[in-house]
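Students often ask why inverse folding is considered easier than folding. One informal answer: many sequences map to the same fold, so there is more than one right answer. In these notes we will look at a single instance of the problem. The structure comes first.
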């Protein structure tokens, strides 16, 4: 099991898309998500075929959250420079976890 960590504290369980096919598949075909889902490397994501709305955190190589964007179904998050990973979560999860733009997060296994 992996974890999404902020300031040394675990904020959520983390599923890692650790292969090319897992990154391509993402959350397609799922009807829920507990915790967060990491796609790396990635600079953008889409929600075509999704069954629920997401929030996405765009993260740079140092772990800084560059942006958090709502991602309704059938939409695309525009690619951002200097982003190396995308963390997906259910809509409202980042607010619940108190993860904001500018925060530094870690991905621990």
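Output (designed amino acids):
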């Amino acid at each position: 099991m992996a974890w999404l960590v902020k300031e040394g504290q675990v904020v959520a369980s983390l599923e890692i898309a650790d292969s090319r096919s897992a990154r391509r598949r993402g959350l397609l075909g799922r009807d829920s998500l507990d915790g967060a889902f990491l796609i790396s490397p990635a600079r953008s994501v889409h929600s075509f075929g999704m069954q629920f709305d997401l929030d996405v955190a765009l993260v740079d190589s140092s772990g800084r959250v560059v942006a958090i964007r709502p991602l309704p179904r059938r939409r695309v998050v525009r690619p951002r420079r200097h982003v190396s990973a995308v963390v997906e979560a259910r809509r409202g999860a980042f607010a619940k976890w108190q993860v904001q733009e500018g925060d530094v997060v870690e991905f621990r296994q």
